[in-house]
Write a structure and sequence with these properties.
Layout lengths: L7 H13 L2 H8 L3 H15 L4 E3 L4 E3 L1 H32 L1 E7 L7 H11 L4 E7 L15 E4 L9 E8 L1 E6 L9 E2 L8 E4 L5 H6 L11 E5 L3 H9 L5 E4 H6 L5 E6 L5 E7 L5 H14 L6
Parallel strand pairs: 3-4, 3-5, 8-12, 9-10
Antiparallel strand pairs: 1-2, 5-13, 6-13, 7-11, 7-12
Helix pairs in contact: 1-2, 1-3, 1-4, 2-3, 5-9
């Protein structure tokens, strides 16, 4: 049988069985039946003229030749992943459509201006914004449901390129009448023993807004979790605890019951555009527009 009969499904099946070392688990991973998977592997072995796997009643392992073949298969699989990413970038640039995730409460003052300037430059392009709450701090990048996103680093998402577009001060959100609200500014050390409102879940983004980098390993006392700016500030107004947020929140989300005080010795927080490589022309245009709007030199 000709080697030209080898298809990508054979490669995927080979890699799944090699990884799982079990036909049943590999079949479940590929969402195919176990007999169909076994038949595909037998077809591949017949085409190659040698056994890929040693099978016993208890285990499955690669033969010496199978291990060499598996290395080739991994290289091919990585090449195909790169091919798909580059074709997707080409497809997006041709279709003139860009889906942008944004983290709730982030770049509130910039997004309308970014949209206006982008549409002026690309009148035939469609720019769609998708809002994400604090349970998705990378604003959709980890799920690959957006082409790029606007958020506040740090995030745990691997394999993304982050371009800073703006910075702003961090502020403490305090209930009205809190002793620290009598000060013009506060220091981060004054906040560490307070009960905190935090984002749901775990990760570096939540830790950042709990000021974990200043705690020397001591955990924050989290009393309430909030997934949106509104629920965070409502919890503060109800005196459940305090929180840390960006200075723009004080301008755009101010409400009765909450006092904002600048944190004098906490590093500025960052607003960034994140994307996976390669960046298509529309993403590059969006980054250029964001740099113009925020007047921050972009280091890509």
């Amino acid at each position: 049988m000709s080697l030209m009969n080898i298809q990508l499904r054979h490669i995927r099946c080979l890699l799944a069985v090699a990884s799982e070392k079990n036909f049943a688990r590999a079949a479940e991973r590929l969402a195919v039946s176990q007999p169909a998977l076994s038949q595909t592997i037998m077809q591949l072995e017949a085409t190659l003229g040698f056994e890929i796997f040693e099978r016993t009643t208890r285990s499955v392992s690669l033969t010496k030749d199978g291990a060499i073949l598996c290395e080739y298969a991994h290289k091919l699989n990585r090449s195909m992943e790169t091919f798909h990413k580059e074709v997707k970038a080409l497809q997006l640039s041709i279709h003139n459509f860009l889906r942008v995730g944004y983290l709730i409460g982030t770049a509130v003052e910039f997004i309308p201006k970014i949209t206006q300037e982008f549409e002026r430059r690309r009148p035939n392009a469609t720019l769609e914004f998708v809002e994400y709450d604090f349970t998705n701090p990378d604003a959709g990048l980890s799920t690959e449901l957006v082409d790029c996103s606007i958020f506040r680093p740090p995030v745990d998402t691997p394999g993304i390129h982050i371009v800073e577009i703006a910075r702003e001060k961090c502020v403490a959100c305090l209930p009205d009448g809190h002793p620290l609200s009598l000060q013009d500014t506060v220091q981060v050390e004054q906040l560490l023993d307070e009960p905190f409102i935090a984002a749901p879940g775990n990760g570096v983004w939540r830790d950042y807004w709990l000021a974990s980098q200043y705690r020397q390993g001591k955990p924050a006392r989290v009393v309430f979790e909030a997934a949106t700016v509104d629920s965070e500030l409502q919890a503060v107004a109800l005196r459940k605890g305090i929180s840390i947020t960006a200075e723009s929140t004080a301008r755009f989300y101010a409400r009765p019951g909450v006092t904002f005080r600048k944190i004098s010795n906490m590093d500025d927080c960052i607003i960034a555009i994140g994307h996976r490589q390669p960046a298509n022309p529309l993403i590059k245009e969006l980054i250029d527009v964001a740099a113009l709007v925020t007047r921050l030199p972009v280091k890509d």
